[in-house]
């Protein structure tokens, strides 16, 4: 019998940026299928697929939360969107609470709680720190503890010329650096410009 190929879609299904599949409000019929992840390379078109997985659906039993997905450390550049995963299994459905540097995090504006964790839009260096996701129901508590480091964008470059001469240039600006005629390309010497990042 030829296998049935269905694309996962709908409000109950969510595929994260890391490729994890989450199913909300699991139904008995979700256990009738095999699940497989298929990826396609955006430039070459090459496809790869994972091994198949089966979901076994049972009646819910009361249980304390157990972590399904979390993080230890994340790095990002300022301005990027950052996802901090925190997902737990438990019954009744657990509640989630986020803390930054041991203080409750206000989930509004750039900080949004999602089905899979915490989403930070337009990240800033000040967002760096320790994050805790507390998951709890009446049967217990679980935690995800991790650190986020947001690097500041490079604001300027230093261009070095002969004798250590330098110019400061802002990002997006133009620079014309005129070198002495004696430094031009000759048959004996290859002239080059060394550009390096200021650390």
Verbal overview:
This protein has 199 residues and is mainly β. The protein has three domains: 13-54, no CATH class; 63-151, Immunoglobulins (Immunoglobulin-like), CATH 2.60.40; 156-196, no CATH class. Helix content is 0%, strand content 43%. Strands 8-16-15-11-12 form a five-stranded mixed beta sheet, with no helix packed on it. A three-stranded antiparallel beta sheet has the order 9-14-13, with no helix packed on it. A hairpin with a 6-residue loop joins strand 4 and strand 5 (47-49). The protein is flat and about 50 Å long.
Characterize the overall form: flat
User: Helical amount among residues, as a percent range?
Assistant: under 10%
Major sheet: arrangement of strands? 8-16-15-11-12
Number of domains: 3
Outline of the structure:
By secondary structure, the chain is mainly β. The protein is 0% helix and 43% strand.
Descriptive keywords:
single chain; 199 residues; mainly beta; Immunoglobulin-like; 3 domains; five-stranded mixed β-sheet; 0% helix; disordered N terminus; disordered C terminus
Secondary structure layout plus pairing:
Layout (H helix, E strand, L loop, with lengths): L12 E3 L5 E3 L10 E2 L2 E3 L6 E3 L3 E2 L8 E7 L3 E5 L4 E4 L1 E5 L3 E6 L2 E2 L6 E4 L2 E4 L8 E9 L2 E12 L4 E5 L5 E5 L24 E2 L3
Parallel strand pairs: 8-16
Antiparallel strand pairs: 1-2, 3-6, 4-5, 7-10, 9-14, 11-12, 11-15, 13-14, 15-16, 17-18, 17-19
């Amino acid at each position: 019998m030829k296998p049935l190929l269905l694309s996962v879609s709908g409000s109950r299904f969510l595929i994260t940026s890391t490729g994890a599949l989450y199913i909300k409000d699991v139904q008995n019929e979700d256990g009738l299928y095999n699940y497989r992840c298929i990826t396609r390379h955006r430039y070459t078109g090459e496809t790869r697929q994972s091994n198949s997985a089966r979901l076994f659906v049972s009646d819910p039993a009361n249980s304390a939360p157990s972590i399904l997905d979390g993080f230890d450390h994340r790095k990002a550049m300022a301005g990027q969107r950052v996802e901090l995963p925190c997902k737990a299994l438990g019954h009744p459905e657990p509640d989630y609470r986020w803390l930054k540097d041991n203080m409750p995090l206000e989930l509004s504006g750039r900080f949004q709680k999602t089905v899979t964790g915490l989403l930070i839009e337009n990240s800033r260096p000040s967002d760096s720190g320790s994050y805790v996701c507390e998951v709890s129901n009446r049967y217990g508590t679980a935690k995800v503890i991790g650190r986020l480091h947001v690097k500041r964008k490079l604001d300027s470059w230093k261009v070095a010329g002969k004798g250590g001469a330098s110019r400061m240039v802002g990002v997006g600006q133009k620079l014309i650096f005129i070198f002495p005629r004696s430094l031009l390309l000759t048959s004996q010497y290859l002239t080059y410009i060394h550009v390096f990042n200021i650390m």
